Description:
The structure holds two protein chains of two kinds.
Chain A: H1 5-21, H2 31-35, E1 38-45, H3 51-61, E2 66-72, E3 77-82, H4 90-99, E4 103-107
Antiparallel strand pairs in A: 1-3, 1-4, 2-3
Chain B: H1 4-20, E1 40-54, E2 60-77, E3 80-93, E4 97-102, E5 105-117, E6 121-133, E7 146-157, E8 160-170, E9 185-195, E10 197-198, E11 205-218, E12 232-245, E13 248-261, E14 268-280
Antiparallel strand pairs in B: 1-2, 1-14, 2-3, 3-4, 3-5, 5-6, 6-7, 7-8, 8-9, 9-11, 10-11, 11-12, 12-13, 13-14
Amino acid sequence: MRLSFQNFRLMILLAILAMGCSHNTPSAIPEEWKASGEIRIYEVFGMDCPGCHGGLENQLTALDGVDGAKADWVQKQVTVWVSQGNLISDEVIHEAIKRANFTPGDRIK
Amino acid sequence: MITLKKQYLTAIIGMFIFVTILNAGGISVDAGLTPAENRWIVRYQARQMERTGTNIMDVDVAMTTDMHVFNLAYGVRPQLTLMIMQGWANRKSDMMGQASGRNDMTLMAKYRLLRVNTRETTLGVAATIKLLIPTGEEPFTTDYWSVSPGIFLSQRWNTWALDASTEFRFNDLFDNRDDSLQRGWEISTNCAIARQIALGDNSAFSFAPVLEMTGSVTQPDMPAHVSFNFRESMIFLSPGMKLTYQSLILEVLWQYPLWQDIPDSAMEYSSKGLVGIRYMF
């Protein structure tokens, strides 16, 4: 295969298709989160592109008591949706952030 | 004397360097620190390389090699990543004809030695080791095992990044050939600089101009006439770009040979092209 225009076009098409299949992670907090449970925001250091979001979010949503997580590499923070009545500690959240190879900062909210 | 065209070229290269002396992340070589625990990374790259020269009859000859390279990486621990790489190649040569086949398989481990994240910067150091297994088909296999220990350095400063790596390849681990043959070695180094620019209001999208510099020195097998490794040294300068949307990365790179020192009988390297796609689960 040569890196011809047709092949390049095919790669772009595949990329667009894959983007369409990707889960959506807008920076805004979903209404569903605001309706119930607790929303916490933590500073996170070490993220350098949108590709970092998924690894961090996977670590956090794997925790019992965490229903959702949204990372933001520009704001250097992650928003965590904790189940209603769950008393998961900040230390447990911090450990999950470290497993994603990042460093937790202050809890903002 | 610098012509007007050269002035424009110098200005464009200068602007590119100025723009990219902000954040990086290599494309042509494995770059980036170890990913999160339990994270899978799937990567595909299409590469094309051209070589040109003249034969003993002083006739122009050329060789084009297309490669399809698949990578699968997994974060076993936050500090340890394992990777497997397999490529397929198709070669068209005026002198040797056409050939297609599987390349040797590469296994790699990357171990994080240091990672310090602060509000403004990230500094990381990792050790790497690659094992080349001779599973390829003729004429794309080396027919022997090789091991390449290396070191990787990463620095982030806000949206700027600098990655550098170097590795040394020991060929023919199990000494398959007779004692009269002394295998050559190879040392290679790569440096990449880039800037990650967020696009739109949503931090899920970013664009990164990348500038890489790659160099390698190959020590030939001795005696040279039975060698697989030929004496060659080269430096490539490579502008490129990465487009990231959430867990998906599209990457394009063009490598220009800045300097090369190869035997008179060998064809010179022309530019190399690379288009890749990466998804992280």
